[in-house]
Structure formats: structure tokens, C-alpha cells
TrEMBL record:
Classification via InterPro entries: Transpos_ISL3 (IPR047951)
Record-given protein name: Transposase
PANTHER family tied to this protein: TRANSPOSASE FOR INSERTION SEQUENCE ELEMENT IS1557 (PTHR33498)
Organism domain of life: Bacteria
Species in which this protein is naturally found: [Clostridium] ultunense Esp
Organism phylogeny: Bacteria, Bacillati, Bacillota, Tissierellia, Tissierellales
Length: 149
């Protein structure tokens, strides 16, 4: 997770909380692509991460909203984007990839239990929603392999 700096870290009731903020000086407008350094406001995003010892981590990310400098752009204000998490996402992309791999090889219920052991509490419905986002061709390709096992 580059482009962020940890401000504070503490433990409370067997859970690690990490407060972090972006260190980027500017961001690109997702609509027009113009770079802006005009900060409109700040907001917080919650991310959930796990660890190999099974202790859950909650990352509170202080992100920013920027004003677009292009006067003809439809989007006056846009949010900061990060390469390690999708917009509106609560799980980092590397965790999503693990869920996809496990979800294609076992049941959603088992994936939920495995992730819980790693400190990431997700439901089997979350696993199914993640798998539904995969390209249809990939799932059809994987299906015969799952049946053969």
C-alpha cells in the first residue's frame, strides 16, 4: 500500500486499528484526466484486512476529495483513487484475489470460514457477489475442472 502513511496504530479488544492518510500531492480527475492539487475536503474510508496470525485489522484511511481544474468538466469534485482498493470497496484488492481463487476451488461457505481464520469476517454472500463479478467465460472454463475433482 504505497501512497499512504500510517499516522496512528492501536489495539483494542483483540483488533488492530490503523489510521492512515494519503501522501499524494495531486490526483487525476476520473472524467477528464486533468491533474488537480486543489483539495475540497477530507473523508474517512474503512478497510478490513487480516493477518497470518488471525487477528483482524481495521484500516481507517483518511482520503480526500479534489476540485477539478478543468472548467468544462462535468465533474466538479472527485474522490481520491487508490490502486490497492476499488472505489466503495472495503477489502483490499489482494484479499479480493484470494477470495476469488478460493471461491473457484471450494464452496462459498468454506471460503467464509477460511477468511475468518485469517481475521477477515465475510459472509458466504460476499464470496458469491465477488464471484459474480468475474467474467462469465472464466467461470465456464473453471466449471469442468471443478467437476473433475
Amino acid at each position: 500500500m504505497r501512497d499512504i502513511r500510517i499516522i496512528h496504530q492501536f489495539e483494542e479488544s483483540n483488533k488492530t486499528f490503523i489510521i492512515a492518510e494519503s501522501v499524494k500531492k495531486y490526483c487525476k480527475c476520473p472524467s477528464c484526466g486533468i491533474v488537480s492539487d486543489k483539495i475540497h475536503s477530507k473523508y474517512t474510508r474503512k478497510m478490513f484486512n487480516g493477518s497470518l496470525d488471525g487477528s483482524p485489522q481495521e484500516i481507517i484511511l483518511i482520503a480526500r476529495k479534489f476540485k477539478c481544474k478543468e472548467i468544462f468538466c462535468n465533474q466538479e469534485i472527485f474522490t481520491e483513487r487508490f490502486d490497492f482498493i476499488d472505489p466503495y470497496g472495503r477489502l483490499p484488492n489482494n484479499i479480493i484475489e484470494i477470495i476469488k481463487i478460493l471461491g473457484l476451488s471450494t464452496s462459498a461457505e468454506k471460503v467464509s470460514k477460511i477468511m475468518s481464520k485469517l481475521g477477515i469476517k465475510i459472509s458466504h454472500d460476499t464470496v458469491l457477489r465477488t464471484l459474480r463479478k468475474l467474467p462469465k467465460g472464466l467461470i465456464k472454463l473453471m466449471n469442468p475442472l471443478l467437476i473433475l475433482e
